[in-house]
Amino acid sequence: MIPRLALSALLAFGLQLAVANEAASDDPRIGLALGSGGAAGLAHIAILRVFDEQGIRPVRIAGTSIGAIIGGLYAAGLSADEIEALFAEFGGSGLELIGNLASGENGVHLSDLLDLDLDDGGVVDPAAFLDYLRSKVDARRFSDLEIPMLMVATSYYEGKPVVIDEGDLFEAMRASMAVPGLFPPVERAGQVLVDGGISDPLPWGLLGDDLDYRIAVDVSGQRERPADGELPANELLFKTFELMQQSIIRARREADPPDLLLRPETEGIRLLHFHRVDEIIEQAGPAADRLTEFLTTHSSSSSSSSSQP
């Protein structure tokens, strides 16, 4: 039997060791919000690559639409490089809103991944695309993820955001990316769900208060005046959708700003330009550099403060 004094000393030593181990970590607790924005959301890959390079893992991710897809793949264990390779593979050809879906040179055909679906509330059916994503990861449900993840959709009839953090991972992705007029809505748990960007395009508010920093990545796009002065109808439709998203983000930023808001450049990128992954990631370089500086500075600050008596 261990004497009471020795037991007390042993417990005290264990507590000191646990505190010391926690203090020894230089990594701040970071929550990461990845926003909605169609193909411009491929810029999220450049941001995730910084986390990989710094050896820092977000402790929680919240994503909307393309942010839900890329965030979900990352939370499932794929690296930024692997996610880039995945999109480079399926996006080997351009995708137009309606019309001919051309073949990519790498043998993966967008016409195989996105089927026309005019009778079900959308233009294309993303089922085959989601099957393709499913084939790239082992995770099937939120409980399989390495990083806790929240995905945002919008309840069509209630007009409110719906946060999904359990159940089928790919059903949640499908709901979060259901852009009205492009992808059909999703029926889930008695609700009709459409794209989360309608109600919460950049969900840093979901990340919680138990974090050192909340980092949000806004890929809601830019509008450029066309050289010929013509605005195609489909371009006007989706750019107006982006305007709505930016208004929501601006209002929420004024009320409760994240610790770091990154806005990668997406000049010349339209909703479905997934074949331009290299260009999009290159444009995101300055935003990635800002994140590198932020993480380097604040990890050093954490280390310095933890060494104080």
Automatic annotation (TrEMBL):
PROSITE patterns in the cross-refs: PNPLA
Short sequence motif GXSXG: positions: 63-67
A biological-process GO annotation: lipid catabolic process
Pfam families per UniProt: Patatin
Any one GO molecular-function label of the UniProt entry: hydrolase activity
Position of sequence motif DGA/G: 195-197
Active site: S65 (nucleophile), D195 (proton acceptor)
Protein name: Patatin
Keywords, alphabetical: Hydrolase, Lipid degradation, Lipid metabolism
